[in-house]
What does this fold into?
Amino acid sequence: MLRVFNTLSNTKEEFKPINENKVNMYVCGVTVYDFCHVGHARSSGVFDIIRRYLLHKGYDVTFVKNFTDIDDKIIKRSNEANIPWTELTAKFMDEHNADMDSLNILRPTHTPKATDYIKQMIEMCETLINKGFAYESNGDIYYRVQKFEEYGKLSHRKLEDMMAGARIEVNDNKENPFDFVLWKAAKPGEPSWTSPWGEGRPGWHIECSVMSEDILGLPFDIHGGGKDLVFPHHENEIAQSEAACGCMFSKYWIHNGFVNVNQEKMSKSLGNFFTIRDVLKEFDAEIVRYFLLTTHYRSSLDFSQDHLLEAEKSLNRIYTMLDELNRFNPGKKGVDVTAEAEKMVETFMQKFEAAMDDDFNTPEALAAMFEVIRETNTLLASKPNKIGFPALLKAVETVFCVIKSVLGVTKYSPEEWFRINLSIPEDELNAKIQARTDAKKNKDFATADNIRNELLEVGIELQDTIDGTIYRASKIRTFS
RNA sequence: GGCGACGUGGCCGAGUGGUUAGGCAGCGGACUGCAAAUCCGUGUACCCCAGUUCGAUCCUGGGCGUCGCCUCCA
It folds into this structure.
């Protein structure tokens, strides 16, 4: 039984989709005016894994992630760069997609853009005005927060409490300082659309209300995003959508924790962010993806080079096992490990699903995977015979098929993984390995060790096995 | 000021009212020409104080500390 933590109830709840086998989910995407940073990677990674696990459970998942392609920051940035805002947003949508692809994040089923839904946003404004939930003021349209009795139910705060500690700016156009804008009148020179209230453009929150309803219908199953969106963004979405339709908006609300740098939230405003692009120059995308799995999605995740290096070592351990498995030649002698292999898969599946069923506990799921790795290494050391080895191979394939499809890591073959960072031509390397093998044959261990040390300095590690010498290349890093 | 989260062994990080998380690093052993990889063994861990309990790291109350939301933000 899958249990998910619902921000709305502040508890883990049994997950029961509204329609049998169908899951509709909507995740808030990015405002496209800059490159994505690691915080975006986390959010995207988290919801990708949630989606993949739901698929694994057999659900038919429709996954919507929007692009916010009109807002103050976009206008500002396009003015600064002196390029049309549409060009700016088109560029960063492409860049966003490239980053997400490299992180092995499945493309959403739908990726609506706010500006494609202007008409529907105007209609929702009209509906809300007609129902008394919104009002016009100098060409702006505001949501009348006090009219929506349940306002605050997601973020668990009361309007009165918020008013008491209010530290928000006074705006003469508003009836109440917590009223938020649905539609704003255009200033001269700004991009704008024609509306019943004159030229203007949409406020931020309304796009998600409109696009989710248009594509998924109401209510839908899961609405997600970063923790920082709980208030005001998601609270406001609920107010708009539930007031407009008179029904439930989303059944489950899922929010991911932040990425921290030195105990502080990584954010644009603090300026302590790393773009995905920059991190990928130093670390393979799979390392970044694995790193995201090492902490539960609701906790904050501390971003540092050390943690990425640890993630890399963990992946090395995984690929080492897979490599040794691939290279193993079973003999006539040996043991039949069929029973152990079958038991191993069974135990893994049980532990893996229990972990993921418990609010997508990926660190515990990884622990189950590492148990398979140790067990497999042990079984390999016991020399499986021609009957036992295929059973072991099949068992490991079954396990890693799940790891690949749900967690989205170990997409490489071991050969690829240990070759990504090869720093010298392979011919040259093979020649050196041959020279060392010759030296070893002549008991000239000094020469052999020199060659080995020389290669180690360029990131290539040699290992002697029964079937000859193999190599593993790792990235030479300039820092630390 | 209002609301909330967190504090686990050298580091990271799950979890539980009494019985092994897992990874990284360290130490001892096996293996190796030596290594590496791997396996085996190895750690008086749960911020402080009080309470509930036969028993609390896990429950309750208080304290200290860190962080987040309340303004754009994944």
